[in-house]
Amino acid sequence: MPYRIENQKDHKNAKGEPAPWVIINADRDEVVGSSQTKETAEASIRARLAGEHGGFKNRKR
């Protein structure tokens, strides 16, 4: 699923804390999460995509 990030300066998360970086499922145009910083919103999207595609796997180096 494609996601996008928008800055909505007055948005608050479920705990009532400021979380202006909103993660939106672009297919459904639905807010699926929010973060206090753009960087954590981007990390959340990476984790969501990894989960949708088999998750994180242990790699041998």
SSE blueprint:
Elements: E1 3-7, E2 21-25, E3 30-35, H1 38-52
Antiparallel strand pairs: 1-2, 2-3
Please describe what this structure looks like.
The protein is α+β, with helices and mostly antiparallel strands and 61 residues long. The chain contains one helix and three strands. It has one helix at 38-52, and strands spanning 3-7, 21-25, 30-35. The chain has a three-stranded antiparallel sheet with strand order 1-2-3, with helices on one face.
Query: What's the overall geometry?
Result: globular
User: For the terminal residues, how far apart are their CA atoms?
Assistant: 30 Å
What is the topology, as strand order, of the major beta sheet? 1-2-3
Task: Tell me the total number of β-strands.
Answer: 3
Provide a count of the helices.
1
Strand content: 25-35%
Instruction: Please compute the radius of gyration using only Cα atoms.
Output: 13 Å
H-E string: EEEH
Mean pLDDT: 90
List low-pLDDT spans: none
Structurally, the number of domains stands at 1
The helical percent reads 10-25%
